[in-house]
Design brief:
Blueprint lengths: L16 E3 L35 E7 L7 E11 L3 H6 L7 E5 L8 E7 L4 E12 L9 E5 L18 E5 L23 E2 L7 E4 L4 E6 L5 E3 L9 E10 L9 E3 L10 E3 L3 E6 L5 E6 L4 E5 L11 E9 L3 E6 L2 E7 L12 E4 L8 H4 L2 E10 L5 H12 L1 H4 E3 L3 E3 L2
Antiparallel strand pairs: 1-25, 2-7, 2-24, 2-25, 3-6, 4-7, 5-6, 8-23, 9-12, 10-11, 11-23, 12-22, 13-19, 13-23, 14-22, 15-16, 16-17, 17-18, 19-20, 20-21
């Protein structure tokens, strides 16, 4: 396997820092005793970027899992455990900063979870660029850390700037309080479980936790600002359907009529839908003039009981696409029309706004990592997302800690 980073021997000049010795309780992290190639530290000649830190971890990216070149890509880091963070990092995760090895500005990161008992970490790191070409990936990321809290110089919302309109990790407990379900973007489209009545509950999911919907009346109410759409966009999430009922991912209701599906907008005039009711239909309605683009008969796939990564993109000047686990499963030419930008009166995740429609259209299962973007993501971006999120431990792997010499 080709790795993005250059591996060097343990001999010779250390350029001002050293690899910390293993304490024998490395929790599955490879030792630095030369037993395997992956035990060799990474790029010992890289400069030290921040004098406020005395420790750092190199992060090696398997660029063979990247397709194309991307700017501002939010890379998922999931480390089940790490002995150096466990033993030497501040317990709340408040002593972290990320840099590329060329020592530019600190990288924005969104810390989703940190477990000081074992050094386990789940975080999103915004990379300035990410490419399948090793020549374009010369700088590598480092996590700098220390045993005391340090001021954050980037915000979590800075991760989600590359065309993202809303991002919900759905890590919350589901306690029916206002603004509990946090939108990580600057738009702050926070949601409330059940509108204060019928909230989903926290459940283990592919990326930390998601929300378990009962298939009857659970939902998350969102502000109407979360329904901002335009000529192009992307909606995505992880889903595990627990029965054969239809999935309602994202629902808008502007006139009293209701639709189930993967959609956003005013249902009579300005709507994008992907219906996932085991027969799977996607459609775009525009400006009420009977200009209808419909994608039907998506290839037979297993959704019930299985985690799937589902994406719907549209560009009304070209096409609309459905993706399942990173691959295009249906594509259709879109009419060259314009949305008028009608704002719906209800936007929810999990079921139609009307309770009378919920029993036949509510989502029963678990949703995780729900996102809306204002641009149609490319197939290369979506495949790279899928490879990163479906197997983050292989996509980006931490090395052992390096200590700066006094």
């Amino acid at each position: 396997m080709r790795w993005l980073t250059l591996l060097v021997a343990l001999t010779g000049c250390r350029s001002g820092f050293e690899t910390l010795p293993s304490d024998g309780a490395d929790g599955g992290i490879t030792r630095t005793d030369g037993a395997t190639d992956s035990a060799i530290p990474i790029t010992s000649t890289d400069p030290w970027c921040d004098d406020e830190f005395s420790l750092r971890l190199p992060i090696r990216i398997d660029y063979t899992r990247v397709e194309g070149r991307h700017v501002g890509f939010p890379m998922l880091l999931v480390w089940a455990e790490h002995p150096d963070l466990r033993d030497r990092a501040e317990v709340s995760g408040g002593g972290f900063r990320f840099y590329m090895s060329d020592c530019g500005d600190p990288l924005p990161f969104d810390m989703q979870q940190y477990d000081s008992s074992n050094g386990g970490l789940t975080a999103w790191l915004r990379l300035p660029s990410l490419s399948s070409s090793p020549e374009e990936n010369a700088p590598i990321p480092y996590l700098y850390f220390r045993d005391s809290v340090i001021e954050r110089v980037t915000a979590a919302s800075d991760v989600w700037t590359e065309g993202f309109s809303s991002v919900w990790h759905l890590e919350e407990e589901g306690t029916d309080v206002a603004d509990e379900f946090r939108d990580q973007t600057r738009a702050a489209n926070h949601g409330r479980g059940g509108g204060g009545a019928a909230s989903p509950v926290r459940e283990i999911a592919p990326i930390g936790h998601g929300q378990l919907f009962d298939g009857v009346d659970d939902f998350i109410a969102l502000p109407t600002s979360a329904a901002a759409i335009g000529q192009r966009g992307t909606i995505s999430h992880w889903a595990r359907l627990d029965d054969s009922a239809g999935i309602t991912f994202y629902q808008s209701d502007g006139t009293g009529e209701l639709y189930n599906g993967f959609g956003i907008g005013d249902p009579l005039h300005h709507e994008v839908h992907l219906w996932l009711d085991m027969r799977s239909v996607g459609s775009i309605y525009s400006d009420g003039s009977a200009q209808l683009i419909r994608v039907q008969a998506m290839p037979s796939v297993t959704i019930a009981g299985v985690w799937r990564f589902l994406v719907f993109t549209w560009d009304l000047s070209s096409n609309m696409r459905m993706y399942l686990d990173g691959e295009v499963v249906k594509e259709e030419r879109a009419n060259d029309v314009s949305f008028a930008g009608v704002t719906p009166t209800h936007v929810v995740i999990g079921r139609p706004p009307s309770l009378s429609q919920a029993p036949v259209r509510a989502f029963g299962g678990v949703l995780d990592e729900v996102r809306v973007a204002s641009e149609a993501r490319t197939p290369a971006w979506i495949r790279t997302e899928w490879r990163n999120q479906s197997n983050p431990r292989e996509f980006a792997t931490p090395g052992r800690a390096e200590a700066r010499q006094p």
